[in-house]
Amino acid sequence: MLAISNAHLTNVVVHHCGNQTNEEELLISKSLLNIDDEKVRNLLTKFFLHPFQDPTFNRFTFSNQDFKMNTVYQYVNKIFEQPITLLAQSVNLAKQLYELSTHPQIKSGDLFVAYFTGLSFEEKTIEAVGIFKSENRQEFLKIDSHQGGFEVQYQDGINSNKLDKGCLILNMEGEEGYKVCVIDNTNKGVEAQYWKNDFLMVKPANDSFHATKDYLDLCKNYVTKQMPNDFEISKTDQIDLLNRSIKYFKEQDEFNLDDFSRSVIQDPQVIESFNGYKTQYENEHELAFNESFDISDAAVKKQNRIFKSVLKLDKNFHIYIHGKRELIEQGVEADGRKFYKIYFTEEN
User: Fold this and answer.
1) Which of 69, 185, 204, 340 is most buried (most C-beta within 10 Å)?
2) C-alpha–C-alpha distance, residues 160 and 222, integer Å
3) What is the rounded CA–CA span in Å between residue 110 and residue 78?
4) Are residues 200 and 216 in the same domain?
């Protein structure tokens, strides 16, 4: 977890980045923002950092895998080396983003570049560079007292509780492409990929969190999508296999493919089918699964939410299955009605 309680926003600059295809301008600031007001500084700090408290990490990359060729990496690296260059490097970042803002659906917005000290991660106090883009403005009404009465004014501005696009680069593992956290809360279509893929050019970090998350995604997709095509399997048996999969990751400290196959999948034919699907999944998602890795508790907790253990029967019943598949029997009456028989010892 990233601790931000002692974080200090040292400096921040803002530029306005339009869409050049829509003939919008790039407006460059000539100075840093004045953040001497403590309330403004605290509000900006919360606005920038709050979404990153439970981060997943990426690293800078490049088309030839040499992350040092990544221009955003180069500009950020110079800021870490000389924080006084924040303004100059933020101009370079704004120009880079503007050059990539060519899709007609990319929104214009305010681009913030900030420098932080006092963040804490893995018991280390670190610095960070933040790159944030606010694309959506909201309407506000401001009420002020005036000559014994009140007057109301219309204003538009940024919702300080919602960051549209953000990137936080921790000054850690710079020799491997830094620890980079990315969020994009706006569009999810092709036009949105310019932020992560074209501008930042990052890829998931090769760490235990992503290894665990990706393997759990693989398991879920195999059981729910591929397995019903290869075998006749009931919904109950699908849920049972999902439960056994997530249970393995909860109880083990280290993942081992052979052990997982024997203890969870069990059936040799299903193991063969799973391995074939894993190869296909790797190719489609540009992944390379390791046969063993340390299991991340944080990733298990996060992915546990997508492992559904609910058996839905028409619109009348939902059965939550958490284990002991042998206590559920399925059948069909002579008149064609389907049924489940459930055995239990206590009613709570």
Assistant:
1) 204
2) 40
3) 22
4) no
Please say whether the beta carbons of 60 and 178 come within 8 A: yes
Does 104 reside within a domain? yes
Nearby residues of 283 by Cβ (< 8 Å), 6 or more positions away: none
The tens digit of pLDDT for each residue in 91-131 reads 999 999 999 998 888 899 999 999 999 999 888 999 999 99
pLDDT tens for each residue of 240-299:
888 888 889 989 999 999 999 999 998 999 999 999 999 999 888 777 888 999 998 888
Least confident range from 35-44, 264-273, 302-311: namely: 302-311
DSSP secondary structure of 217-260: HHHHHIIIIIHHHHS---HHHHHHHHHHHHHHHHH-SEEEHHHH
| Per-residue pLDDT at 69 exceeds 90 | yes
Looking at the fold, whether 101 and 32 belong to one and the same domain comes out as yes
Residue with the bigger pLDDT between 65 and 79: it is 79
Q: Where are the alpha helices (DSSP H) in the chain?
A: 38-49, 71-81, 86-100, 193, 208-221, 227-230, 235-251, 257-260, 268-285, 297-303
Domain shared by 284 and 188, yes or no: no
Q: Which long-range contacts (CB under 8 A, 24 or more apart) does 122-128 make?
A: 124/172, 125/6, 126/170, 126/171, 126/172, 127/80, 127/83, 127/171, 128/168, 128/169, 128/170, 128/171
Please tell me whether residues 100 and 136 are part of one structural domain: yes
Q: Are residues 129 and 272 in the same domain?
A: no
- Put residue 342 in one of left, alpha, beta given phi > 0 → left and psi -120 to 50 → alpha: beta
Alpha carbons 168 and 38: distance in angstroms, whole number: 22
**Beta-bridge partner residues of 270:** none
Tens digits of residue pLDDT in 191-238: 567 898 899 999 877 778 888 988 999 998 898 889 889 988 877 778
